[in-house]
Each structure stands twice: as C-alpha cells, then as structure tokens.
Amino acid sequence: MFYNPKRRHSFSNGLSPVEYEKRYFQRLLSV
Which residues of 5-15 are buried (b: 16+ CB within 10 A; e: fewer)? Predict the structure, then answer.
C-alpha cells in the first residue's frame, strides 16, 4: 500500500493499518 511499514504504529495514532485504511477510504468515498 501507500504507507511506510516501518512507521505503521505511529502514523495512524495507534490504529492498525487495516483499520486506518478502512477509515481512509470511507473518508475518500464520503467526499
């Protein structure tokens, strides 16, 4: 994906990459 695996735990405020992606894509679809 587009995220850096090494920063997985810090960039998403503690969310798992999967959960972050779900929220990210929901945000894209809602725009």
Answer: eeeeeeebeee
Contact 12, 20 (CB under 8 A): yes
Q: Please give the Cα distance from 25 to 10 (Å, whole number).
A: 19
Angle at 13 between CA 23 and CA 1, to 5 degrees: 55
For the question of whether the overall pTM of this predicted structure is more than 0.90, the answer is: no
Q: What is the pLDDT of residues 1-31, one digit of tens each?
A: 555 555 555 554 666 778 888 888 898 888 7
* Contact status, residue 10 vs residue 19, Cβ threshold 8 Å: no
